[in-house]
Amino acid sequence: MPEYAETIATGLGAAAIALLVAEVLYRAMHWLGRRSLLLIELAEHGHRPFQVAGTIFAVQVGLRHSTGYAEDAEWRHALLHVLVLGTIAGAAWLVGAVLLAAEDTALARFRTDVPDNRQARRIKTQVVMLRRVTIAVIVVLALGATLMTFPSVRGVGASVLASAGVIGVVAALAAQTVLGNVFAGIQLAFSDAVRLDDVVVVEGEWGRIEELTLSYVVVQIWDDRRLILPTSYFTSKPFQNWTRTKAAVLGTAEFDVDWSVPVQLMREELRRLVEGTELWDGRVCVLQVTDAVGGLVRVRALVSAADAPSLWDLRCLVREHLVAWIRDQRPIALPRTRAEVGGASGGFDWLDVSTTGRGRSASAAEAPDDARVFGGSDDGDARSSTFVGPDEPVDPGPPAGHLNGADLGPRNGDAGPPKG
């Protein structure tokens, strides 16, 4: 048999053996992995990379140890070099596939399609960021190993090392923004400040974290627009995270009405409304008078929902229903401007200035549960204990809700007023 034919047969035989071994391992791992998700993932992710890397490596070894046909020929050395490069690339592919299989196995234990998925989203965010880091490291190592196979690269190693200091300074100055975003992405993954699918408010926009990479974050805004921000934004600027600890949130609907508004009847109507809709999660339903300045009274309805989208719809429903209720059932409470002419009472038949009997008992009565944000229910008691602060004597200060003339009272969308 001619020497070239023997060399070709050796290469083909080595490739056939490698493919056979890869197929046997694939079927064996599938059989053994009937009760092991990890083995199944390794078999599925690593089958093709192992075929490619194993075949190239087997052909390279077979040709290197075959007969001396064209041993000194340039094409033989070039072919062996190409096979070495292919082996390095295939090995990098295989290592990456093994790591991806391990990461997918870890993620399979945590479901994100359930209501209470905070831990699952945190693990998913960290695994996704680790996956990108490991892929980048594998690519860099494979590229470095590839370059080191060229004698010219090894020969200039001394000069490269000698100028490494200057090059490093220049590269650091040129890539400081990129590196800052990369480190910010790693920090976000492990600080748990923001996770995939978190509901956030950034740049005045309300949306969810759709994608989180090492260099940028994609926020899906409620109207399906996309807001692209560098990862360093979330480590250098404040933002709202509505699902940092849980998905359930509170929201408000405010009304400016006349002083004659029947607050208790309005409170009962709010309770009747939320108990008849699936948008309410059953935690908080409170109606309070939060302001009474000038000619109007500000009434705030505070309600809770299981998630932010449900809360938005619930707030809109509360506004629509209570506006219609005031208009149709209690038109006397519609906002109005009065001009008093004549006596002090102005002839208003709804004005009750009695200070005895029923009026006194009503003012002394304890507020109902749905008139209290802090207390009156299990959720209110828990919120009260959270905002009480340390049990220490404090110096007398300005009245509750004011500090140096600044109004600390609740605003529309606030979680609630301070204690007191």
TrEMBL record:
The chain crosses the membrane at residues 7-29, 78-102, 129-150, 156-175. One of its GO terms (cellular component) is membrane. It is found in: Membrane. One of its GO terms (biological process) is transmembrane transport. SUPFAM superfamilies: Sm-like ribonucleoproteins (SSF50182). The keyword DNA-binding does not apply. InterPro entries: LSM_dom_sf, MscS_beta-dom_sf, MscS_channel_2nd. Pfam families: MS_channel_2nd. Keywords: Membrane, Transmembrane, Transmembrane helix. Residues 178-244 form the Mechanosensitive ion channel MscS domain. Residues 359-420 are annotated as: Disordered. PANTHER family: INNER MEMBRANE PROTEIN (PTHR30566:SF25), YNAI-RELATED MECHANOSENSITIVE ION CHANNEL (PTHR30566). This is Mechanosensitive ion channel-like protein. It comes from Micromonospora pisi.
